[in-house]
Amino acid sequence: MLHEETSGAVIDAAMKVHSILGPGLMESAYEACLAHELRSRGLNVETQVPLPVVYELVRIDAGYRIDMMVAGVIIVEVKAVNEIAPIHKAQLISYLKLSGVRVGLLLNFNVVHLRDGISRLVV
Predict the structure, then answer these.
(1) Separation between Cα atoms, residue 50 and residue 68, nearest integer Å
(2) Which domain holds residue 28?
(3) How many structural domains does the chain have?
(4) CB-CB contact of 117 with 107 (8 Å)
(5) What is the pLDDT of residues 26-54, one digit of tens each?
(6) CATH code of residue 66
(7) Is the entire prediction scored with pTM above 0.90?
(8) Which Pfam families does the UniProt entry name for this protein (predicted)?
């Protein structure tokens, strides 16, 4: 599956989750429901994927976790915040660089219309 098709599938699934649950829940609820929805559509989804930092050729577990890795080609970071701050986008960009994955989606479920809470980043 291509990046564009996978991104589209994730966004479609996220829209369904948001239309059923609405805003106001914790990130963990949206993450679990989105993972379930994506798996029910036949996509490979890993959640809370450890992401080490490589520093001077040493692999260091610094406690970072990717919310979701979808089909091995898209990182999805789930938020439930009043608004996306620059640090949220910086976090996703760092995760993309550290993992070698090129495409990421930042999904903020704490919005009235999910379309207003979607950011797609490419490195």
Answers:
(1) 10
(2) 3-122
(3) 1
(4) yes
(5) 999 999 999 999 999 999 999 999 999 98
(6) 3.40.1350
(7) yes
(8) PDDEXK_3
